[in-house]
Specification:
The protein is an alpha+beta fold. Helix content is 34%, strand content 30%.
């Protein structure tokens, strides 16, 4: 029986194997909203497949959702513009070299 990851990869290869668009960086974005599904939908509408991976954390005390996006370094400015157009309440945090840690 095939693994579920093989099934997904055969139907959605771009989502499993990111295109090579150069070195990756991690961009931090904060959104003052606790509705994580709304934040996710807005992010995906704004960026489409330009993000390789991301983590999402919620700070209920400050009503803040924080995303760490793994993106191609050369696309950062365009992605920031797209985020501001699609999620105008977003605030940008740090930009760090490398991508997100790989989970095994």
């Amino acid at each position: 029986m095939p693994l579920i990851s093989e099934f997904i990869a055969s139907r959605h290869p771009a989502q499993v194997l990111p295109r090579d668009r150069g070195p990756r960086v991690c961009l931090t974005v904060r959104v003052p909203n606790l509705d994580t599904q709304a934040v996710r939908r807005a992010l995906h509408r704004a960026l489409g497949d330009h993000i390789d991976a991301y983590t999402l954390t919620v700070d209920t005390q400050h009503a803040l959702t924080t995303l760490r996006l793994q993106v191609a370094r050369g696309e950062v400015a365009a992605l920031m513009d797209a985020i501001m157009a699609g999620v105008p309440q977003a605030e940008f945090g740090g930009l760090s070299a490398g991508g997100l840690p790989v989970l095994h």
